[in-house]
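Continuing from yesterday's entry. The apo prediction looked reasonable, so today I'm repeating it with coenzyme A included to see how the binding region is handled. Same sequence as before; SMILES copied from the compound registry.
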Amino acid sequence: MGQDQATQPTGVPLLSAPPTDLEGLYGRGFCLCTTPSAQVSLVLSQERSIDLYELEQICDAVGWSRRPLRRVRKALENSLLVVGLWRHDARLPRLVGFARCTGDGVIEATVWDVAVHPLYQGAGLGKQLMTYVIDCLKQMGVERVSLFADPGVVDFYSAQGWELEPQQRRCAFWYAP
Ligand SMILES: CC(C)(COP(=O)(O)OP(=O)(O)OC[C@H]1O[C@@H](n2cnc3c(N)ncnc32)[C@H](O)[C@@H]1OP(=O)(O)O)[C@@H](O)C(=O)NCCC(=O)NCCS
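Holo prediction written out below.
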């Protein structure tokens, strides 16, 4: 992702978008998504602030249980990377997808809370969201990325090159203090 110019997840420079306007809305390093509909522009951003109520609506829509908003705010503040997928509107972009990562920013990162609003699913946006997340982590120099997939989405990640554990080497554990 260039600093001054928007790029698609494929790295192709966008010739038609006005980068300065979009940069004002979405910050540096935003990506315009490829979408099946020419009527809708969708943008990935790691700099535009997330509205907690919009995020809660997405979590509700995909069936996740609610968490207190003040704890969510703190979790976002403490995250290494927070990515929003926005339906572009010059006056009021709408949050339609989300992902975040925790980690040390150098050796390890873990991806959490990957979600695309059901109205926008099945259009390749989840895949572009993950590509963007990985690109951002690569730019930081993170060496290894992990995530915990719900059983119903294992194939979504496998198809994008994620390796399923435990294969032979490691096993995931949970502990609630
Ligand atoms: C998982 C999720 C992010 C995928 O988003 P999406 O925008 O629908 O995904 P895409 O359209 O980019 O799909 C990319 C590919 O993965 C496939 N895919 C999508 N969801 C899948 C699933 N649940 N299982 C297996 N494959 C899936 C698509 O068919 C597509 O395949 P193709 O490249 O061969 O056409 C979205 O369904 C979602 O938000 N689900 C609810 C929340 C959730 O479960 N998050 C993951 C927590 S670990």
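Comparison notes:
- The chain is about 25% helix and 20% strand.
- The pocket of coenzyme A is lined by residues 62, 114-116, 121-127, 149-150, 152-153, 155-156, 159 (CB under 6 Å).
Will overlay with the apo model tomorrow.
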